[in-house]
Specification:
Elements: E1 2-11, E2 14-24, E3 29-33, H1 40-47, E4 55-60, E5 75-78, H2 90-101, H3 106-115, H4 119-122, H5 131-143, E6 149-153, H6 161-176, E7 180-185, H7 188-192, E8 197-202, E9 205-210, H8 212-219, E10 224-228, H9 231-240, E11 245-248, E12 251-254, H10 258-267, E13 272-277, H11 281-289
Parallel strand pairs: 3-7, 3-8, 5-6, 6-7
Antiparallel strand pairs: 1-2, 1-4, 8-9, 10-12, 10-13, 11-12
């Protein structure tokens, strides 16, 4: 269990993190989401003792990070994949970690295999690694001590689509074995695919938290857009099945997955004319609640015009 209690960090008059409080349960992947500059990285640095909070504290099963014996055996950390000596090889970096934590040397090869770095890649210097390779090495280093907790800042940065899918599978298996993951990102759709819970931060404050379904309901959006040949029959069937929905013109926003709505329609022999996933509910919520931290607004008044566009 990770407990973040009323954490604030200020730099003079600037408040980077403002009274942040949340908990992360064991066996869960928690997505820590916010625009660039919202306070994600500062919060994570405070969690692992790299930045002192102005007030508040963070504990792991009741203990501060610096009170953990051999902390790398309890908390695996990846905050900056490039924060290693560029002249050392990947194997040397992992070997130093193994020696520091008092682990068997066999962990080096185990972790290289786990993250998909080959023998030849492990002998290359970090300065010659691509960003994706650095991320894989950083994840390997975080996993070296077989910790109960992983704290990862933007781990998908630099990974190609296959690498991102690999990372999702790796973290899902880790959590399914009882591990705890805090995963920061500014990419909402990517985190949606893996997180059990999401915490949204904007302008240094927590603005919303919960699982996907609860955040969708908070957004006023819905899981499914549905239209039927007989709309009255569909609303009656959904009401009888105790499925929440709201009417929006000629369509329904249904708080359920499309497969569930479709199953109800089939059982009642209702002809559907539209049935699709509502895609923008969480995105709208994210952009609305973190608007003060967003660098780019939706106003296109001053955008340059493209000559001949659509002509």
């Amino acid at each position: 269990m990770i407990s973040v209690e009323h954490v604030t960090r200020s730099y003079g008059d600037y408040i980077a993190v403002n009274d942040v409080t949340f908990e992360v349960a064991s066996g869960h992947i928690t997505g820590f989401l916010g625009p660039n500059g919202a306070g994600k990285s500062t919060t994570m640095r405070i969690m692992v003792g790299l930045t002192a909070p102005t007030s508040g504290r963070v504990t792991f099963d009741g203990r501060l990070y610096h009170d953990l014996p051999n902390p790398g055996r309890h908390v695996g950390v990846l905050l900056d994949a490039s924060a290693q000596h560029a002249g050392r090889t990947g194997r040397e970096i992992l070997t130093i970690g193994v020696m520091t934590m008092g682990l068997p040397m066999s962990r080096v090869d185990e972790m290289l295999a786990t993250v998909g770095l080959t023998e030849s890649e492990s002998e290359r210097r970090l300065g010659n690694y691509s960003l994706g390779m650095k991320q894989r090495l950083g994840i390997a280093h975080a996993l070296l001590g077989d910790p109960e907790v992983l704290i990862l800042d933007e781990p998908a940065n630099g990974l190609d689509p296959a690498g991102i899918r690999w990372m999702r599978g790796l973290l899902r298996r880790y959590a399914d074995r009882g591990g705890t993951v805090v995963l920061s990102s500014h990419l909402l759709h990517e985190v949606e695919l893996i997180a059990d819970e999401m915490i949204l931060i904007g302008n240094g404050r927590i603005v919303a938290s919960g699982d996907r379904e609860s955040l969708i309901q908070l957004s006023g959006g819905a899981g499914t857009i549905a239209k039927a040949d007989d709309q009255n029959a569909l609303t009656a069937a959904l009401t009888a099945a105790n499925v929440a929905f709201r009417i929006d013109g000629l369509q329904l926003h249904v708080f359920a997955r499309p497969i569930e709505v479709g199953r109800i329609a089939v059982e009642q022999q209702i002809v559907m004319t539209e049935l699709r996933t509502q895609q923008d509910g969480l995105e709208d919520l994210f952009l609305t609640l973190t608007a003060e931290s967003q660098r780019d607004a939706a106003d296109t008044t001053h955008e340059p015009q493209i000559a001949g566009a659509l002509s």
